[in-house]
Design brief:
Elements lengths: L2 E7 L15 E2 L2 E2 H9 L6 E6 L3 H8 L5 E4 L7 H9 L8 E6 L7 H13 L5 E6 L2 E2 L3 E4 L3 H5 L8 H4 L4 E5 L12 H11 L1
Parallel strand pairs: 1-4, 1-6, 4-5, 7-10
Antiparallel strand pairs: 2-3, 6-9, 7-8
Length: about 200
């Protein structure tokens, strides 16, 4: 059985106007590199990175990683277009995919492993997501049977419509990282203050 990871990194970073947020540094690495490093610490058969806005700049960060790099030319249509771009590049024998947000560097490798373990435990048939204090977090693993629905998503709400189905398993993870994305300079300062 094979599980992939799709890292979404195509947005315009409009709420951090001075730089693309994925280029911001945390402990000497960019946010995107930090997310990539974490994803590659667990046993994912294929890792896809979806770029869009600032693709040329960000691709230079990714080039030395063992990942499949794809460009979403329709990134302005929202997150769903990046999910579609990534899913369409999955290898045929992938049994599930973990959708990973590129702006969440606080997610830890052991968080990913807990989700993967639960996905395997339920025989690759359940949507698995992390939760903290009853708040749904990221990343989320989708079984292969949902790939067609993921491709048909529209707008900027990601896969929330599919997550509303009953075929889901929440995994309690006591980590702020699964619910904290970095959109603004203030978010970045908060994140850095928590890491020190």
């Amino acid at each position: 059985m094979k599980i992939s990871g799709i890292i979404l990194a195509a947005g315009s970073s409009s709420r951090m106007p001075n730089q693309n947020k994925l280029m911001a540094k945390i402990n000497g690495k960019t946010i995107l590199e930090s997310v990539l490093d974490t994803a590659l610490m667990v046993d994912l058969s294929q890792v896809i990175v979806v770029l869009g806005s600032n693709a040329e700049q960000l691709s230079e960060l990714v080039i030395d990683y063992p990942v499949t790099l794809v460009i979403n030319d329709e990134w302005e249509k929202g997150m769903s277009s990046s999910i579609k771009t990534g899913v369409e590049k999955l290898e045929d024998d992938i049994n599930g995919t973990m959708i990973i947000l590129g702006d969440m560097p606080g997610v830890r490798a052991n968080d990913l492993q807990l989700l993967l373990n639960k996905f395997v435990e339920h025989e690759y048939q359940k949507i698995v997501y992390p939760a903290r204090n009853n708040q749904q977090g990221h990343p989320v693993i989708f079984p292969k049977k949902y790939f067609k629905e993921l491709v048909l998503l529209t707008g900027d709400r990601g896969a929330k419509s599919i997550l509303n189905e009953k075929n889901t398993i929440g995994v309690d993870i006591n980590s702020q990282g699964i619910i904290m994305d970095i959109d603004t300079e203030s978010d970045l300062k908060t994140f850095l203050s928590q890491k020190t």
